[in-house]
Every structure is written in C-alpha cells, then in structure tokens.
Design brief:
CATH superfamily: Metallo-dependent phosphatases
Largest sheet: 7 strands, mixed
Structural class: alpha/beta
CATH topology: Purple Acid Phosphatase, chain A, domain 2
Distance between the termini: 37 Å
Number of domains: 1
Radius of gyration: 20 Å
CATH class: Alpha Beta
Length: 309
C-alpha cells in the first residue's frame, strides 16, 4: 500500500500552462528547494516565468545556494525538451528588458504576453508598471526591498522558534500588510487598474505578479468583467497558477505532498557544487530537432472547458 502511494506521488501531473512569479533567486527569503520539488512534480506544455525570477537588485556572488541553481537547471531541462518557456521581465530583473523580443529554441523573453487559450485572450505581465513608486521613487522601492528581505530572515528565525515550541508558522510581512489600511488599498487599486485596462482591451483573463498576493477572482468594472489572477510568490506564499483542460487553479505548496520525494535524487544535487550543476545543465541543453513539432498551448484544442467561478 505504501509502495503504491509512493509510485503515485512520483507521477508528474500534466498541466497545459503554469505561471510562476516572484521567485527572487539570490535572496535569503527565496524558497528555492520547495520550488524545485514543485517543478519536478509537474509536466507542463508551456511555462510563464512572470517576472522577478532572479533578484538582480540584491544579487550577490556571496549568496547563490545550490537549490537556487537547481531552479535554473529545471528551467533549462524544460527548454531542452521543447517546453515553451516565456520569460516576462519584472522590476527586480529589469536588466533583461533590453533583451525583450529575444528567442532561442523554445525560450522567449518579453515584457508582456498575450496568449490565446481556447479562443479566449489571456494578458500576462509582471505588474510593476502600475507601481507609482517604481515610476517616481525607485530608490524608495529598492530600499523597501532590502527591508523586506531582512524581515523575511527575521521571520524565518521566528518560525524556527515557534515550531520548536509546538506552534504553527507565522508571516510577519503578511500580518503587517493586512493590518495596514494603505497596503490593503494599494492591493485593491492595483487589481482594479489591471482589470480596467484588461476590460478596455477585450481581454478575458489578466495575469500578473509583483505584489506577492495570490488571487483568483472576477472583477466587475463599469465597462465589463474580467478574470483576475495573481500567481503570488515563492518567498511567503509559495504559490503558482495552473491552467489545465480549460480550468484555472491556484497551486499552494504543501510539504506533505512531497513526503515520498526521491531522497537519493535530492541528496545527489544537495552535495553537488554549483559548477557541477552548471556542467550538468550544459550537457542537458540540447534543443529539439527542427522538424519536431512542439506542443503549443495556443493551438491545441482543449475539452471540458469550464469558466472561472
């Protein structure tokens, strides 16, 4: 019975499209190990990396753990297998915006993306374009990013103490944001702005990140209605947006789901140096044959279509 359950856990879930946002590789708050487990558990046809994947604002050569390199390795694995990977730039990886329009194999880099999903339009972008501080006080935003990273480190220590005392985990930043009216208003204004523009352009779905607030809901405006989705982050919430057979769903990481994870494989990468992982990545980086037909989310018909409720 246990062996059968273990085999079921090893099977990769099929997903038509997965949206991952705000990973912040290179920072202490990034939950890269958990993200790697999730990435290895799914079999996507297309992937959207929706901004702030690598945190170039706080990047330091002194801090780049092996599990952060494993995230990059998994992305390259997908690319080498012909999985369509869209890298949408964010504010923390804004240096990549000069490469917008770049394509190599099944990888493309853009500032925004418009996908046709079963006849419906999905508008995807990071979201920092609607952040007032990004436009008028970027220095304040960068200062806040360093403070946020420090708060995450303090939070990790508090959770360690809390678990030792037999209590559950807490999120200091979540509690602070939820208790401050201005922060709540900022989230609401952000969502409304996204919805207004999406409706004005006739889009059915609008997907973003940036605010580290996972959400799936319909937003009604004076001119119409749109399905708003935010993929959240891999610093606090550990969430992703999945699209499969015409249905959107929010994925929440749960440690219990990976109870039967292959420990030998995880340990193998744990004790590999970054250089060894990098060499492994190079060996895997072979593009599909030009004649091979890649699966496209835009063109493949999907059955059992359901609307977001």
């Amino acid at each position: 019975m246990i062996q059968k359950e273990k085999e079921n856990q090893k099977k990769k879930r099929k997903v038509d499209l997965v949206v991952i946002s705000d990973v912040h590789l290179g920072t202490y708050g990034c939950h890269a190990r958990e993200l790697v487990r999730y990435m290895r558990s799914i079999k996507p046809k297309a992937v959207v990396l929706n901004g702030d994947i690598i945190d170039m604002w706080q990047f330091s050569k002194r801090y780049w753990p092996r599990d952060h390199m494993q995230v990059i390795q998994q992305v390259i694995k997908w690319i080498s297998k012909g999985v369509r990977v869209y890298y949408i730039t964010g504010n923390h990886d804004e240096m990549l915006r000069k490469f917008a329009g770049f394509k190599m194999g099944s990888l493309s880099i853009d500032n925004k993306l418009l996908l046709n999903l079963d006849g419906k339009k999905a508008w995807i972008f990071h979201g920092d374009v609607f952040d007032v501080t990004m436009s008028h006080a970027k220095w304040l935003t960068k200062l806040g990013a360093h403070g946020y990273d420090l708060l995450i480190v303090i939070n990790a220590f508090c959770n360690w103490v809390s678990e030792k005392m037999g209590k559950g985990k807490i999120s200091l930043s979540k509690n602070i944001k939820n208790s401050v009216k201005r922060a709540v208003k900022y989230v609401n204004d952000f969502e409304k702005t996204c919805a207004d523009i999406a409706v004005a352009n006739g889009y059915d779905f609008v997907l973003c990140g940036h605010i580290h607030h996972p959400e799936m809901k319909k937003i009604f405006t004076e001119k119409g209605v749109v399905n708003y989705l935010n993929a959240g982050d891999w610093v606090e919430n550990l969430t992703a947006i999945e699209y499969y057979k015409g249905t959107w769903s929010m994925y929440h990481y749960n440690e219990k789901d990976y109870h039967y994870i292959e420990e030998e494989q995880e340990e193998k990468f744990e004790y590999m140096s970054n250089q060894e992982i990098f060499n492994t990545m190079l060996n895997e980086f072979t593009f599909p044959h030009p004649g091979k037909k890649n699966i496209s989310v835009e063109t493949e018909p999907v059955t059992n279509k359901k609307n977001l409720s």
